Amino acid sequence: QEQLVESGGGLVQPGGSLRLSCAASGFTLDDYDIGWFRQVTGKEREGILCIRRSTNSAYYADSVKGRFTISRDNDKNTVYLQMNSLKPEDTGVYFCAAAADDAGPRTMCTVDYAFDFEGQGTQVTVSS
Asked: Which of 37, 72, 79, 96 has its CA 20 to 30 A from that of 26?
């Protein structure tokens, strides 16, 4: 079965760090472009970081620029979102998604872009 599963969310104090994992099964994640999104209750889903595999180009939302980075472990078929200097406004459910279309990273991070696979999300809460 082809799926993406996020993990690594939790409660962290402001200024802390978390690393989210996005593990793929049933397909090779390195063949896909990756997007990370977050959803806050009552707000529109926000594309925060998207990376295009063919050019290694990335889009970072202004809200996470300089604090969040993405990496891959192809042996584990997993992508990671490293989140540093976390703020209370980073609280939300974080999703990863994979697309084979080779679109530009800014395009992928729009709310209506259609990914091939999307995970169920993991909750991140930043609070003291």
From this structure: 37
